[in-house]
Amino acid sequence: xxxxxGITIELKFDDKSKLKLRAIAKHAGALADELDRIDNLKxxxxxxxxxxxxxxxxxxxxxxxxxxxxxxxxxxxxLSNQIKETTLSIGNVSSKTAxxxxxxxxxxxxxxxxxx
Length: 116
Hints:
The chain is α+β, with helices and mostly antiparallel strands and 116 residues long. The chain is 37% helix and 16% strand. Strands 1-2-3 form a three-stranded antiparallel beta sheet, with no helix packed on it.
């Protein structure tokens, strides 16, 4: 079997392109969080809506949530009595994933140059 040669790709980025890539990396984590939130939406069995409202009972002394009820915002049907953890980011890096992507993009051209 013949040996295959590696492919070398040279990428040269000007300062504006580097800033654009960093902006993409910065918001990739927020986008991933939002897509996860969408994937975790519950469909109302009564009307098929994805719009929900969470009614929470909060302890005044500790500010801890004692219980929460998720209801359909359209018909009022109760969807769940469990609190589901959700992370929402707005314009800030909020997860290690975004940091990893940003770090990877910093040296992209160097790493691609040496890959085989």
